[in-house]
Amino acid sequence: MMAAEQPVLASLIARLESPTIHLAAFGVAYSVALIFEAPIIMILSAVTALVHDKKSYHQLFMFTLILNGLMSVAIAVACLPTVFSWLSNELLNIPDTIKSYTHISLIILIPWPAAIGFRRFFQGILIVRHKTNRVAMGTIFRFLFMSTTAIFLFSMRVPGAIAGSSALAAGVVMECLATWWMARKAISTIQSLAPKENQVPLSLSSISKFYYPLALTSFLSLGVQPITTFFISKGRYPLESLAVLPVINGLVFIFRSLGLSFQEVAITFIHQTSEATRQIIRFAWFLGIAVFICMTLLALTPLSLLWFEKVSGLNINLASFAIVPTQLLVLLPSLTVLISFQRAVLVTQKATGAITIASLIELCTIVVSIWFFITQLNWIGATAAASAFLLGRLGANAYLWPRVKTCLNY
Question: Do the beta carbons of residue 312 and residue 235 sit within 8 Å?
Answer without folding.
Answer: no
